[in-house]
């Protein structure tokens, strides 16, 4: 089994912004050690004759051009509101002045 220390687990927890108890450190030490051992096993597999692969399905990206198919007139946009001014919606202020606290 991988020889991870409590400090290794605490370091990973800190990087992950996790606050672990001592019992959790012990629990995750065992679990993370198993993961590291499995990764070591994978690194022993001979992949020298395997071609690099970026995806496995054989599909290509399918893109379409952005085209405006139809839009609303200004009259249609503002049909159900009276809260408008000069082609814009009027809304309450979201931010106060910088000097106010």
| Computed structural class | mainly alpha
Q: How would the global form be characterised? A: flat
Helix content: 25-40%
Q: How many β-strands, per DSSP? A: 2
Radius of gyration: 29 Å
Kindly provide the name of the CATH class of the domain at 6-43: Mainly Alpha
Terminus-to-terminus distance = 57 Å
Side by side, the strands of the main sheet go 1-2
CATH fold assignment of the domain at 6-43: Histone, subunit A
Give me the number of helical elements. Answer: 3
SSE run? HHHEE
The major sheet is characterized as:
2 strands, antiparallel
Residue runs with pLDDT of under 50 for 5 or more positions? none
Beta-strand content bin: under 5%
Q: Please, what is the average pLDDT? A: 87
What is the second-level CATH architecture of the domain at 6-43? Orthogonal Bundle
Structural descriptors:
single chain; mainly alpha; Histone, subunit A; 36% helix
Helix-strand blueprint:
Elements: H1 6-15, H2 22-43, H3 74-77, E1 84-85, E2 88-89
Antiparallel strand pairs: 1-2
Structural description of this entry:
It is a single chain. The chain is mainly alpha-helical. It has a domain at 6-43: Histone, subunit A (Orthogonal Bundle), CATH 1.10.20. It is built from three helices and two strands. The chain has a two-stranded antiparallel ribbon with strand order 1-2. A hairpin with a 2-residue loop joins β1 (84-85) and β2 (88-89). The chain is flat. The chain starts with 5 loop residues before the first helix and ends in a 12-residue tail after the last strand. The model has no long low-confidence stretch (mean pLDDT 87).
């Amino acid at each position: 089994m991988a020889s991870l220390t409590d400090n290794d687990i605490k370091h990973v927890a800190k990087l992950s912004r996790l606050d672990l108890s001592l019992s959790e450190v012990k629990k995750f030490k065992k679990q993370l050690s198993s993961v590291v051992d499995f990764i070591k096993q994978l690194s022993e597999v001979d992949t020298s004759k395997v071609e690099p692969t970026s995806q496995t399905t054989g599909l290509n990206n399918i893109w379409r051009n952005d085209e405006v198919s139809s839009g609303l007139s200004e009259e249609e946009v503002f049909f159900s509101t009276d809260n408008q001014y000069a082609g814009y919606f009027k809304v309450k202020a979201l931010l106060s002045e910088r000097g106010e606290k």
